Amino acid sequence: MQHRPENVCAVQQKNEPAASSALSLVSVDTRRPLTFRRWVRIAVPVAVGLLFLAIWEFCVWYFEIRKFVLPAPSLIADSLVNNFISLSGSLWFTIKITLLAFFLAAICGISLAILFSQSRLTEIALFPYAVVLQVTPVVAIAPLVIIWVGIENAQRAVLILALIVAFFPMLANTTLGLKSTDHNLRNLFELYGASRWQTLAYLQLPNALPYILGGMKISGGLALIGAIVAEFVAGSGGSTGLAWRISEAGYRLQIPKMFAALIMLSVLGIAIFFALSALEYLLLRKWHESATQREN
After folding, report:
1. Pair 215, 173: CB distance under 8 Å
2. CA-closest candidate to residue 134, choices 211, 215, 214, 212
3. Which candidate, 266, 168, 182, places its Cα nearest to that of 215?
C-alpha cells in the first residue's frame, strides 16, 4: 500500500523538531564531558596534594619527628609567613638573574642558529664546541668563572653560569626547526626569486616557531636551575638569592625556612613554565596542530 506524498511531508515536518532537539542534546552531551574532564584535571592533582600534606602532617605528629629533621607542613607555612619579607627580596634577586639569563640565552641561541642555517661551514666549525659547553657540568666550571670575573662580582658569575646552562636548548631547537623546512616550499621560494633573507623571514622562521617555543620552555627552567646552582657555588660573595638563603638556613638548622624557600623556588619554576606555555598557545593556537583543538 502506497502513502500519499502529503502524508510523507507531514511526517517529515513532525520529525524535524525531534531531530533538532536530539542534535542539541548531543551537542550538550559533548560539551559536558569536556567541562568535566577539565575539572577532573584540576581537582585530582589538588586532591592528591592535599592528601599527601595531610599524611605528612599526621606522620610528623604521630612519630614525633623533630622539626630540624622533617618539619610539619603547618610549621613550614608558618615559617613562610614569618620570613616572607626577607625571602621575597632574595626571590626578586633570583628572578632577575633567571629572566636575564633566559633572554640572553634566547637571543644568542636564536641568532647563532640563524647563522648556522645560512652557513653550513659555520655550523660545522662551532656546533661541536656548543655541545662541549653543554655536556660540561656547570659545577666544574663555576669556580673558574668566579675567579675570572672576581669574587666581588658574584652576581655576574651567577648570570654567566645560568646563561651557559640555558643556552644550548635554544640553539639546538632553533637549529632543528630551521632545518625542518619543507624542501618543496624552499624550491618554490627559489623559483619565485626570493632572496635568502626573504626565505628565512617568511618560511624558515615561521616553520621553526614551534621548535623555538619548545626550546624556550626548556631553557626557562634550566635558567632557574643554573642560577640556583651558581648561587650555591658562589657562596656568600655578594650573592643574596634564594639558594644562599637555603644554605644559610641549613647552616643554622632552620629547616622550616629551607622548605619555605624551596616552595618559593618551585612556585617560580611553575610560573615560568606556565607563562611560556601560555605564550606558545597564543602564538600557535590558530594554525599549528599542537595548539589547535580537535573537532571530533
Report:
1. yes
2. 215
3. 168
**Interatomic CA distance for residues 290 and 95, integer angstroms:** 29
Q: What was the pLDDT predicted at 238?
A: 54
pLDDT in tens, 57-113: 999 999 999 988 999 999 999 999 999 998 999 999 999 999 999 999 999 999 999
Indicate if the pLDDT at residue 190 is higher than 70: yes
Mean pLDDT within 116-145: 90
Angle, helices 255-284 vs 84-118, to 10°: value is 40
For residue 3, give the 3-state DSSP assignment.
coil
| Cα–Cα distance measured from residue 185 to residue 123, given in angstroms and rounded to the nearest whole number | 23
Beta strands in the chain (DSSP E): none
| pLDDT tens, position by position, 25-44 | 444 444 455 587 878 888 89
Q: 242 and 94 in contact (C-beta within 8 Å)? A: yes
- What residues contact residue 188 under an 8 Å CB cut-off, 6+ apart? none
Classify domain 73-284 by CATH architecture.
Answer: Orthogonal Bundle (1.10)
Question: What angle is formed at CA 260 by the lines to CA 167 and CA 272, rounded to 5 degrees?
Answer: 30
Q: Are 260 and 80 in contact (CB under 8 A)?
A: yes
Predicted local distance difference test score (pLDDT) of residue 200: 92
CA distance to 122, 123, 124, per residue, from 114 (Å): 11, 10, 14
Residue reference for cell 669574587: 151
Please tell me the distance from the alpha carbon of residue 249 to that of residue 253, in angstroms, as a whole number: 6
Number of H helices, E strands in the chain: 11, 0
Residue position matching grid coordinates 644554605? 247
Confidence of residue 22 (pLDDT cuts 50, 70, 90): very low
> Cα–chain-centroid distance for residue 63?
38
Instruction: Tell me if 256 sits within 8 A of 76, measured CB to CB.
Output: yes
Output the pTM of the full model: 0.82
